[in-house]
Amino acid sequence: MLRREMVRRAGALAVRLAQSVAVLWAAFTVVFLILHVLPGDPVSIMLSQSEDGLSADPAQVAALRARYGLDRPLPVQYGIALYRALHLDFGQSIQTGQPVLATLRDVLPGTAALASVAFALALLVGIALAVATHHAPEGATKAALAALPALGTALPTFWVGLLLLQVFSFHWPLFPAMGNDGWRALALPAATLAIPTSARIAQIAGRTLADAAAQPFATAVAARGVGRARLMAVHLLPNVAISLVTMSGLIAGNLLAGSVVTETVFSRDGIGRLAQLAVQTKDIPVVEGVVLLAASLFVAINLAVDLLYPLLDPRIGK
Amino acid sequence: MNAPSPVLAVQELAVTYHLPGEPPVNAVSGVSFSVRPGEILAIVGESGSGKSSIVSALIGLKAPNARIGGRILLEGEDIAAATPQRLRALRGRRIGFVPQDAGLSLSPLRRIDAQIDEALRVHGMPRHAARARTAEILADIGLGGSARIARGYPHELSGGMRQRVLIGIGIANDPALLVADEPTSGLDVTVARRILDYLDGKIREKGMALVIVTHDLGIATRRADRVLTVQDGKIVETAPALSIPPPRSSPAAPAPAQPGEAVLMVAHLVKHFPGRRGEAAHAAVDDVSFHVPRHGTTGLVGESGSGKTTIARIVLGLETPQSGAVHLNGHDITHATGEARRLLRRRMQIVYQNPYASLNPRLSVEDIIDEPMRAFQVADPAARRLRVRALLDRVGLPRRAGQQTPSFLSGGQRQRVAIARALALEPELVVLDEPTSALDSATQGQILTLLRDLQAGAGTSYLFISHDLGLVREFSDHVVVLRRGRLVEQGAVRQIFECPAEAYTRELLNDSSLRCWHLSPLGKAS
C-alpha cells in the first residue's frame, strides 16, 4: 500500500516535471519567433552605434551576420539555438561578445538582493496593512486603510522611484541616487519595488482574512476565550499563508517585472536592466537568456508551491 | 418551589443593530428568562426570530454594531456590562458554547487535540495539566484510544465526531452555563440522538445550565425542561415542555391507493459504484424493490448513505443500474436512451432539496417555470405565458413575482417556484428529494400542504425522499425503509409506524419526535 502510494507520487512528480520542461520550451520558442518577426536587424543596430555608424560597410555587415548565423534560414537558426540551449550554451551577446551565461551570472546577484529585500519588506508591510485594516474600527480609518492597496498597485513604479530619488537622495541626501554598492544603495530601489508588491500582498491577505474571519470557526474559537491576537496569529494567518503561497508565482512575476523599471531608474546592474538594454539593441541571445531565466524561475516556484502545499494545508494531498 | 439560585438570569434583554445612515433595528426586545443548574431551557424560533442575537449576547460575542440593553446575570455578574477583557475571561471558562455547523466550526488547519488544549490553556491551565485534561476529554467524548483521531485534522473526522469535539471544547472548563446553537444541524437522526443524549447526561452530571437554541420543536419538547418560543425578537410563550403539544400531531389519513395500480414499479435494483483504487466496489443500492401507487405517495426513508438519492437518480434515468428494472406505467424504462429518455422527462420531474441552488439566478421566475414547456414545445408562447401565470396562482405566488429573479424570493417562495416548474409539464410522477429540509418549520408545513393540495387536484404521484420520519408519516401512503442500500422493510404507513417488524426501523422511529412522544413522554433522565 505504501509502495503503491510512493509510485503514485513519483508518477505525479514526473508529470509535473514534464510539464515544466514543456513550458520552458514554449517560452524559448515564442521569444525566438517574436524577436525574428520584429523589424530591425541586430547587426545594423550594433554598427549604427559605432562611431562611423552611418557608413556601415555591406561586406562587414554580411560577415557579422554570417558570424552570428543570422544569414541562415529561420528553421535552421531555431534548430541550432535550441540545440545549444539544451546544452546550456546560449551563445554570445551580439553587443558585448561576452557569453550570455556569464553575463547573466554577473548581474543575477544584484537582482536577487534587490528582489529579496523588496519581497521581505513587501511581506511585512502587506500583512501588517491587512491585519491593521481587519482590526480597524468600522468607519473612516478602515475605509482609508482599505483603499491603500488599490492606490499602491495604481502608482507607476518609475514615478515612485523618481519621487523617492527626489526626496531621499536630492532633497535630503540620505541615500545614493544610483549604483550597486552596499545596503544604502539598495534602500531606495527596494522601497520602490516593495510598494506595488506589498499592495498586491495586502489585497490577497485582506481578502483571505475577511473570508476566514467570517467562517463559523472564528466565532467558535473566540467563544473559547481566545483573544484577538491569538485568533489572528494561530487561526487566521495560516489561512493567509496558504493563499500567499498560491499566489507566489504571481508575486515573483511582479518583482521581476518591477525590477526592469526599478533598475533602470536607479541605474543598478541587474537582470531587469540587462533585459531592457538587450531588447533595445535586439541582442537576441541575451533576450533569450533572460526570458529562459525568468521562465525557469516561474516553473521552479510553481513546482515548489505544489510540493509545499500538503505541508501547509492538511486538507490537500494524503 | 425552593429552587437553587439561577445560573443565568436574563432581564429585559434588548439587542439593537445600528447601521450607518439607517434607523436602528430592534432584533430582540424585552426578553427575560432564567436557567437553574442542571436545567435545560430550549429557545425555539424560526430563522430571523432573534435567536441568533440572543445567543451572541449570551456568549459575549455581539456584533460590533450591536447594542445590548437590559441585564444578563451570569452567576450574579452582569455580563451585558462587562469589559471586553472580563468577557474574554468568561468565554469558554464560565460560558461554554457549542456552535451549529460542526463541519465549519473547528479551525481547519489545527489538530483536534491542539484545539481542545487551546481551550484549556488560554484560561491559564499549565501545559502538563492541559495535556492530561485533553486526553480525559477525548476519552469522555468517545474519541480516546485513537491517537490517529486525536492528532488528526477536522476534515478527517465525521460530522458526528466533529460535533463531539465541539461539545468537548464547550464543557472543557466545566462552565456554569452551556449555550448550544442548533447542535444537531446537519447530522443524521441517529447521530443527532446520540449527541443530544450525551449533552443531556453531561448537564445532569455536572449540574450545568444548558440553553439549547433550535428550530426543531421536536428536540425542544423532548429534551428541555422548559421551552421559550421567540418570534420577532419577543418571547411569545414560555412553557414547561410537557404542556406543549407534540409537533405535527395530526396524522393525516390519505386516501388509500387502489391496490395493484402503480405508476412506478422498481424491481430488484442493484447499483455498485467502483471502489477507489484497490478497494472493493461499493453497493449503493442492493436488491431494492418497491412501487409508487397512482395518485399516491411513497416515502423513501433512511440515513444519509442509505441509497435514497441513488434510487431517485436511477428512477429519473440519471444513473444506470447494474441489474433490476424500473417500470413506468407498466413500460420498462430502465434502459431507455436518446429521444425515448428525453420524452420520459416529460412524465417524471424532480423537486430538489435546496431551492437556493436549483434555480438559475439569472432567469426570471416566469422563464424558469416556462423552460420545461419551451423545451418540449408544449404550446405557443402566448398560451405558455397564460399557463405560467396559472401555475404561479396554483403554487400561491403573486403574479408580480414572475418578473423577478429568484434572489428576491425567500426560501419557501423559491421552493414554490421549483414545484411550479416540476408541475409545468403535468408529469405523472414527481420525485421530491428532501423538498423541505432547507426550510424552517412553518414554511415546511406550508410547502407540504401545497404539495398535498396539488396532488388532490392533479392526481400526481410522489416519490418522497426524506430522513425526517415525522414528515414521512404525515405525507406518505407507503413507506420504504432503507439502510446502506438494502431494503429493511416496507409497507403501508400505519403498519410501519405502528408496528414495525424490524429492529432497525424501531431504532429509527425512536428518533422521531412522533414515536418518541408515545413511547417515552419526555422521560427526563433521572
Secondary structure layout plus pairing:
The complex is a heterodimer of chains A (318) and B (526).
Chain A: H1 2-37, H2 42-49, H3 58-67, H4 74-86, H5 100-135, H6 140-154, H7 157-171, H8 182-213, H9 216-222, H10 228-246, H11 248-265, H12 271-280, H13 284-312
Helix pairs in contact in A: 1-13, 5-6, 5-8, 5-11, 5-13, 6-8, 7-8, 7-11, 8-10, 8-11, 10-13, 11-12, 11-13, 12-13
Chain B: E1 8-17, E2 25-35, E3 40-44, H1 51-58, E4 66-74, E5 77-78, H2 84-90, E6 95-98, H3 112-121, H4 127-140, H5 147-150, H6 159-170, E7 177-181, H7 189-206, E8 209-214, H8 217-223, E9 226-231, E10 234-240, E11 262-273, E12 282-293, E13 297-301, H9 308-315, E14 323-328, E15 331-332, H10 338-345, E16 348-351, H11 365-375, H12 381-394, H13 411-423, E17 429-433, H14 441-458, E18 461-466, H15 469-475, E19 478-483, E20 486-492, H16 493-498, H17 503-511, H18 513-519
Parallel strand pairs in B: 3-8, 3-9, 6-7, 7-8, 13-18, 13-19, 16-17, 17-18
Antiparallel strand pairs in B: 1-2, 1-4, 4-5, 9-10, 11-12, 11-14, 14-15, 19-20
How is this structure best described in words?
With 318 residues, chain A is mainly alpha-helical. Chain A has 2 domains: 2-86, no CATH class; 100-312, Orthogonal Bundle (MetI-like fold), CATH 1.10.3720.10. Chain A is 78% helix and 0% strand. Chain A starts with a helix and ends in a 6-residue tail after the last helix. With 526 residues, chain B is of the alpha/beta class. Chain B is 34% helix and 25% strand. Chain B starts with 7 loop residues before the first strand and ends in a 7-residue tail after the last helix. Mean pLDDT of chain B is 83; it is low at 246-259 and 512-526. The A-B interface holds A 1, 4, 137-138, 215-217, 219-227, 230, 234-235, 238-239, 242, 313-315 and B 20, 59, 61, 64-65, 88-93, 95, 97, 99-101, 104-110, 118-119, 122-123, 153, 155, 166, 169, 277-278.
